[in-house]
Write a structure and sequence with these properties.
This protein has 9 helices and 11 strands. The protein has 248 residues and is an alpha+beta fold. The strands form 3 sheets. A 7-stranded antiparallel beta sheet has the order 1-9-8-7-5-10-4. Strands 2-3 form a two-stranded antiparallel sheet. A two-stranded antiparallel ribbon has the order 6-11. A hairpin with a 3-residue loop joins strand 8 and strand 9.
Length: 248
Amino acid sequence: MIGLFFLCSFSTQAQNISRFSDPNETVLALVNSMPSRGGYLATSTATRDLQKAVQVRDGKLDVNPLAARTTYCSGATYLVFVQAIQSMLSRNALEGPIADALAIKGQPDGAGIWGRWNANGPGTACLFRELNLGHNFTSFDAARRGDFMKIFWTGAVGRGEHGHSVIYMGRFMQNGIEMVQFWSSNKPDGYGLKLVPRSRITYAIFSRLEAPGNIASFKILPARDRYLASLLTNDSSIAEAIRQSAAE
């Protein structure tokens, strides 16, 4: 009974997020409603838990982050993204085929909405470009709290990539060092904020949610993004990632 109480309380809290006119404010409010810690896990078990966290029930999209208590970075940011879409659209907007398209079903990299989001390289940014959900850019000076952000720790993109899917939370000086703060599922603790020196980030692509209603055009998506799918086995480059995502 205690576990059920917490699940219901969390679900109610997320559903009661105010519909801010600014999507970034909605994203930030949802970050504050997410679980904390829980550990970082990038395994098939974590993906199965994500399928339980974002699924279709009675024809409607049901999102319960507590079902994915331990997860990885792209899973954490996708949970916020989908809840943001839910919060900003009408109650009945995510039903039927669109709910099915947003659900996590173990789609391979590059396939469908989740497969794009979860892919190596600029997965989130490519999805934003294809559905015109908002613009992509690379400038830290243009970034705002609540932007989605793909961090590249090195110059590698694709097969040899070391990246991180996060939500940007700002930057500031600390003891003379420029620091960047972000939220995600981070190693080793899981859900929460993390602070790193700006110098550790080799490249970044930001994606700002501006037109959540355009998720309704999901049917225009090809079944698979060939570029993103190829990044499982092939190498790419930052220049190509920027070109594919039309980042400014």
